[in-house]
């Protein structure tokens, strides 16, 4: 597919804690970008973990492999001309760097969704924090597994302070 | 994407020995199907082994994992409305059955590219058989690793007896 738009063949990588708002923002952004006629692919961490990454757990090694495979899948869609919106906690900088390397430095845009842990835990959309506090889940990012904040993201969103609409508009403004 | 054509959201899975002609046929078929306006994705075994499956070897276990991941990737493109042309030696019936199960029975069409080993070896497009005979490669399908022929493929192509054009026309006739 020939390039028609600067966002064709690109990957917008959303990183942040569980509950920070990665999927919410990516879903809204997808709607806006599709209105521009762009082919958009939403690559969701949970969906991959139910399929190609179903054999992986949450150890450091498995998290890395989770991100490596995600980046390879993103690359395949990217090479088909899609603008890929990838939503992965992706807590380790080394893994995000590997994703950038696999996908290509020019094609990879990192969006850090910043949100205080307490707010994520209060939202608890998937009920995961409750399970963590009940001791049913371990190796959970932000609780007993670290989240390394991006050191130089292309965009930072403060999802606790910005509305979804404002955040999406900011992303669009920065990317287009 | 709404269904527009019976081959939208389908996977045509080419199985057969190395050198049987899987990629040649799929590449030709891609051209023909794209002329019908269908979104086609060529999912090639070698390409995946250079990316998402780069961590896998050729043991029975790794071959199975290779096919499992390939089927999951095929499913992602399939769900985007693509007609996926997947070319994998996929020597074990259990793995092809798993692929069919992952992708969905209605969406999965198995095309067996039949070709005598001696002919594949004579063609030796990638120079692999030469390496096998020199002892540089082991676990090679047809030589020291088995190929289980499909018991009830949707289509069988005898690539030693049919021209590429005739084979592609037969596949089109059977599928459309």
What does this entry look like structurally?
The structure is a homodimer of 176-residue chains. Chain A is of the alpha/beta class and 176 residues long. The first copy, chain A, has one domain (10-117, 147-170): Rossmann fold (3-Layer(aba) Sandwich). In chain A, 43% of the residues lie in helices and 15% in strands. Chain A contains 7 helices and 5 strands, in the order βαβααβαβααβα. Chain A has helices at 22-35, 45-49, 60-79, 93-103, 117-123, 128-133, 164-175; strands spanning 10-15, 40-44, 83-87, 108-114, 155-158. The first copy, chain A, has a 5-stranded parallel beta sheet, sandwiched between helices. The radius of gyration of chain A is 16 Å and the shape is globular. Chain A starts with 9 loop residues before the first strand and ends with a helix. Chains A and B meet through α3 of A and α3 of B.
Would you summarize the structure shown here?
Two copies of one chain form a homodimer. Helix content of chain A is 43%, strand content 15%.
Largest interface: A-B, 14 and 14 residues
Count of DSSP-assigned helices of chain A: 7
Helix share, percent of chain A: 40-55%
Q: SS-based structural class of chain A?
A: alpha/beta
Largest sheet of chain A: 5 strands, parallel
Shape category of chain A: globular
Using the coordinates above, name the CATH class of chain A.
Answer: Alpha Beta
Percentage beta strand of chain A? 15-25%
Counting structural domains of chain A, the number is 1
Oligomer: homodimer
Overall average residue pLDDT of chain A? 95
E-strand count of chain A? 5
Tell me the strand order in the biggest sheet of chain A: 2-3-1-4-5
């Amino acid at each position: 597919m020939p390039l028609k738009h600067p966002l064709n063949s690109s990957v917008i990588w959303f990183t942040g804690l569980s509950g920070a708002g990665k999927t919410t923002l990516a879903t809204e952004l997808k709607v806006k970008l599709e209105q521009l006629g762009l082919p958009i692919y939403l690559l969701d961490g949970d969906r991959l973990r139910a399929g190609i990454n179903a054999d992986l757990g949450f150890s450091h090694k498995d998290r890395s492999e989770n991100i490596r495979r995600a980046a390879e899948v993103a690359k395949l869609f990217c090479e088909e001309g899609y603008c890929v919106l990838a939503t992965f906690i992706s807590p380790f900088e080394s893994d995000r760097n590997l994703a950038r390397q696999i996908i290509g430095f020019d094609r990879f845009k990192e969006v850090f969704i910043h949100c205080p842990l307490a707010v994520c835990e209060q939202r608890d959309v998937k009920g995961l924090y409750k399970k963590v506090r009940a001791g049913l889940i371990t190796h959970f990012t932000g609780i007993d597994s670290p989240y390394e904040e991006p050191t130089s993201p292309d965009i930072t969103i403060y999802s606790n302070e910005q509305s979804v609409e404002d955040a999406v508009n900011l992303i669009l403004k920065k990317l287009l």
